[in-house]
Design goal:
The chain is an all-alpha fold. The chain contains 5 helices and no strands.
């Protein structure tokens, strides 16, 4: 079962809402509490108040999440496949015109 949290218009909004949700959960949940029990415990309305209805708070949560994830979000595959600085490890199979 799922609950509707919000409707968004762009990919950027999806990323901000997801980051804010994750950070709110990280700051509010009990140790080892999974997201479903956490949502059940605090209620969907509390999440809507903090994430959907308060744009400033949502942005703050999202920014704290981005900061916390900086070292974990390095994609070594992307770094090694950079076409500007090839290191010979990855080669495209084909290029489409």
């Amino acid at each position: 079962m799922t609950d509707l949290l919000a409707k968004v218009q762009s990919e950027e909004e999806v990323l901000e809402y997801c980051a804010a949700f994750c950070q709110f959960y990280r700051e509010d949940a009990h140790y080892l509490e999974r997201t479903a029990p956490w949502v059940e415990r605090i209620g969907l309305q509390a999440i809507k108040e903090n994430i959907v209805e308060d744009a400033e708070l949502r942005a703050a949560y999202a920014e704290r999440f981005r900061i916390s994830q900086q070292s974990a979000q390095i994609d070594p595959w992307k770094a090694n496949s950079d076409r500007e600085k090839p290191n010979g490890e990855f080669h495209p199979l084909a290029e489409l015109a």
